[in-house]
Amino acid sequence: MRSVWATFLILKLSLFLQLVVPYSPAWGGEPGLVSCKQYKENINSLHKVFPPELKGEARCRAIPAECGPTGLLFNPDGMKTYYYRSQCYMDLALQEQKSEMCDSVLERKSFFFDGSYYSPHTCKAIIRLSQKDQAAPKISPENIVTITRLEAQIDEEKRMMVTLNLAPENPVFGTYSLALSAHYETESQHGKTAEATMALNPQHPNIYFKKKPYERFRLLSYWVIDFLPKSFTSRLTLKVGSRQIDRIQKGLVGKSFNLEANLRFVESSEGGLPEMKKGYGRYSSSKSKVISFD
Asked: Under CATH, what is the fold of the domain 139-292?
């Protein structure tokens, strides 16, 4: 019994030290130009605390070294705790494609919260993937699969059948991401009308939720779909369960909602990317349709 209590007290002490006693990162003893309190108070208007000529690495060094959020339970894995300075260095490293700058991206260690996204390892891995993508063969953007028509119908059992017409007939085969969502007006807690968005999980054998090879794209509300020569069809039918439809109808103000389908290109089967590449998720097509409850 004593050993159990001793273990419990050690855990409590570890948590106290991580949340109360700051960990001092090895940034060469550079504290930053402002205090952590000043930085957080002006995080959306940093022009008030940083001079306009402060850019690049100098701007990252100006951020207080021991400052950053923690305990972000609803953030994606690896981003539940981090340093603002590490975030700055990582964004700059990815923007300039300089892997040596990743050494300044220090991971914030925590007993309970994962901060591994902002780390030298992750930073260098993303740059390697990006450089590999840039060296991949280029493909013609006009051959990427697009949605030309969206059809949907709700049956008596409140199941919705969604049909997407796709083009061209002989497209760029490979990996795409699909988002199906409902946008509608609902009542807020204060009795006022508010906008609501619900992600709908389509059931289709070629759609996988958060497929591991594509976690780097962070498709939080998307589903990865593989278009292959043997399975590609110009009409893709998806089924939305009655539970989601019932939730929409119960929260709906009025009798109709807006259904939206968004299809984004990720990469071809051969690893090719569009000729005028502007970043992941830029090559997409969307269609929407108003769905009414009778």
From this structure: Immunoglobulin-like (2.60.40)
